[in-house]
């Protein structure tokens, strides 16, 4: 059974159509990358998977049941920024997941449960390479370290799906390479489904097992929002065969908003 | 020659420049006082610095003949008790109501317009109502301070919660947080430093309302004293009292600023970025 299923999905804001007629089935364990020009609705689609937005029409299923209408612990998320809490140290950020789960009223742990939770949190920090930064506040961490922290925090709940919204978009190319290695390693080891929105086509090809392109099929020049975007390309990617030759040059040109990043 | 906007004073010169306006005011006062006293040694309007210092020492060390208390300390204790009670209650209420209305749309929808309207009422205009309702004792003065600063503080904190990026609330939900837990661990901790900032801004108004209330009805207090001795043109008492009130206000402000540094290191470093 597919973990995510969209059938004839539409999203409209008043008369503006953002997404139209989206059909999608995602199998558990897939690494789905989503690319598309700005404003093509790929982030809107991600927010629907998150439960922040609800479809206007059509069905969106999670494990065969209707998608919950609010975010929940089965779907972890990492945004481009603001993903971590500035008032907590790195350890505190990761620990928070355990504290929210175990202490309903106080949302704080004391004594032995706290020590055990801290050990687990520290282990998670080590896994993403932040063991030495446990006592630092996010503002003292570099952009890449903040995103590592956000990933560690999201993984503490063992989510079935990890949603990534341009998570590496603000990072330097070298740092981004390290992050790619980290996310691939975590994906392979933890057996989770990843849904990643990116504006970097090469990143989409390099990381995913499946690449989706969101684009508009119809455009009315007098009413740019009259028609929405849908999935125009759905490309299975196999190890070793990852290349963007399979997209027409015109599509590639439309997607790469920042061409210099592709060569990086 | 560098542009004026690029020139900065050194440490010593900077200190001199900072003290200069104070020194000028004191010198001008001394000159004016000396001129008046030369004309009329009994002049009460601009007493000499020496006579003010003597008056201050008397107020701070000698028990009053009428009550047996040392006036300056008794007045200070009475005023600070009123001020700090009012400010502390305002802080607690502002934190609870401000974060709750900032976080929960139903509460915000229901309370925001009401609080905005409440904030428009000039607090001093309801002072008679407070005196009638709560009597002329301590309660009415504390309530006046609360009424004067609470609406502003609540709205400030509500805005602060609304400024927290929505991503953080989504993230907290994906970590399994309930509304209560998110209020407790995300909204309130990030609003606390702002609470101390808002309190600093509100202190000026709090002093204003305190002194106004004391001037109208009190038996003790800094504001009561300066309005009492005004009848005798007792500038020797009024001027040192004003200086003392200023010093108290300055110290409270400094203390609140330090609290943010001590308690919320992430706030200061985060803001510097």
List keywords for this structure.
heterodimer, A: alpha/beta, Rossmann fold, 6-stranded mixed sheet, 4-stranded antiparallel sheet, 8 helices, disordered C terminus, B: mainly alpha, MetI-like fold, 2 domains
Find the count of extended strands of chain A (DSSP E, 2+ residues).
Answer: 10
Helix run count of chain A: 8
Largest beta sheet of chain A, briefly?
A: 6 strands, mixed
| H-E string of chain B | HHHHHHHHHHH
Q: How would you describe what is shown here?
A:
- The complex is a heterodimer of chains A (264) and B (273).
- Chain A is an alpha/beta fold and 264 residues long.
- Chain A has two domains: 150 residues, 3-Layer(aba) Sandwich (Rossmann fold), CATH 3.40.50.300; 84 residues, 3-Layer(aba) Sandwich (Rossmann fold), CATH 3.40.50.
- Helix content of chain A is 34%, strand content 25%.
- In chain A, strands 6-7-8-3-9-10 form a six-stranded mixed β-sheet, with helices on both faces.
- The longest helix of chain A is centred in the C-terminal third of the chain and has 18 residues.
- Chain A is globular, with a radius of gyration of 19 Å.
- The relative contact order of chain A is 0.18.
- Chain B has 273 residues and is mainly α.
- In chain B, α4 crosses α6.
- In chain B, 79% of the residues lie in helices and 0% in strands.
- The chains are: A alpha/beta (264), B mainly alpha (273).
- Chains A and B meet through β6, α2 and α4 of A and α7, α8 and α11 of B.
List the helices and strands and how they pair.
The complex is a heterodimer of chains A (264) and B (273).
Chain A: E1 2-13, E2 16-27, E3 31-36, H1 42-50, E4 57-62, E5 65-66, E6 75-78, H2 90-102, H3 111-127, H4 143-155, E7 161-165, H5 173-190, E8 193-197, H6 201-207, E9 210-216, E10 229-236, H7 249-255, H8 259-263
Helix pairs in contact in A: 2-3, 2-4
Chain B: H1 11-39, H2 49-61, H3 71-103, H4 105-120, H5 127-134, H6 138-163, H7 166-174, H8 179-216, H9 222-229, H10 235-263, H11 265-272
Helix pairs in contact in B: 2-10, 3-4, 3-6, 3-8, 3-9, 4-6, 5-6, 6-8, 8-9, 8-10, 9-10
């Amino acid at each position: 059974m597919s973990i995510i299923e969209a059938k004839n999905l539409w999203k409209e804001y008043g008369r503006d159509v953002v997404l139209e007629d989206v059909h999608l089935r995602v199998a558990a364990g897939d690494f789905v990358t989503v690319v598309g020009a700005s404003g093509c609705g790929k982030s809107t689609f991600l927010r629907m998977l998150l439960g922040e937005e609800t479809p206007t029409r059509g069905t969106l299923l999670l494990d065969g049941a209707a998608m919950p209408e609010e975010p929940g612990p089965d779907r972890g998320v990492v945004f481009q920024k603001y993903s971590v809490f500035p008032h907590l140290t790195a350890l505190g950020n990761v620990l928070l997941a355990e504290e929210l789960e175990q202490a309903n009223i106080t949302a704080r742990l004391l004594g032995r449960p706290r020590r055990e939770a801290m050990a687990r949190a520290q282990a998670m920090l080590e896994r993403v390479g932040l063991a030495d930064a446990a006592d630092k506040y996010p503002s003292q961490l570099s952009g890449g370290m903040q995103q590592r922290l956000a990933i560690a925090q999201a993984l503490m709940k063992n989510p079935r799906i990890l949603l990534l919204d341009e998570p590496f978009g603000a990072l330097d190319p070298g740092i981004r390479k390290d992050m790619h290695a980290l996310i691939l390693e975590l994906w392979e080891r933890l057996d989770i489904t990843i849904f990643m929105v990116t504006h970097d086509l090469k990143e989409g090809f390099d990381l995913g097992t499946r690449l989706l392109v969101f684009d508009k099929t119809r455009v009315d020049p007098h009413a740019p929002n009259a028609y929405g975007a849908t999935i125009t390309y759905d490309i299975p990617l196999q190890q070793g065969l990852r290349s963007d030759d399979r997209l027409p040059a015109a599509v590639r040109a439309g997607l790469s908003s920042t061409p210099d990043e592709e060569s990086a | 020659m560098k542009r004026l906007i690029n020139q900065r004073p050194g440490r010593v010169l900077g200190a001199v420049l900072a003290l200069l306006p104070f020194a000028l005011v004191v010198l001008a006062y001394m000159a004016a006082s000396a001129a008046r006293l030369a004309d009329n040694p009994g002049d009460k309007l601009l007493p000499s610095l020496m006579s003010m210092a003597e008056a201050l020492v008397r107020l701070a060390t000698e028990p009053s003949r009428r009550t047996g208390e040392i006036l300056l300390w008794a007045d200070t204790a009475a005023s600070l008790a009123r001020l700090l009670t009012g400010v502390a209650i305002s802080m607690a209420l502002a934190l609870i109501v401000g974060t709750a209305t900032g976080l929960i749309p139903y509460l915000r929808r229901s309370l925001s317009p009401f609080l905005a309207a409440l904030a428009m009422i000039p607090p001093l205009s309801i002072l008679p109502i407070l005196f009638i309702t709560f009597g002329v004792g301590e309660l009415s003065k504390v309530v006046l301070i609360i009424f004067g600063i609470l609406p502003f503080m609540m709205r400030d904190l509500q805005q602060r919660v609304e400024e927290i990026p929505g991503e953080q609330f989504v993230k907290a939900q994906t970590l399994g947080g309930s509304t209560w837990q998110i209020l407790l661990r995300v909204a309130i901790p990030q609003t606390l430093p702002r609470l101390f900032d808002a309190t600093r801004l509100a202190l000026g108004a709090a002093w204003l309302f305190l002194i106004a209330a004391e001037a109208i009805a009190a038996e003790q207090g800094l504001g009561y004293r300066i309005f009492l001795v005004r009848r005798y043109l007792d500038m020797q008492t009024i001027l040192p009292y004003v200086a003392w009130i200023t010093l108290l206000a300055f110290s409270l402000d400094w203390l609140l600023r330090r609290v943010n540094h001590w308690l919320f290191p992430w706030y200061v470093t985060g803001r510097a970025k």
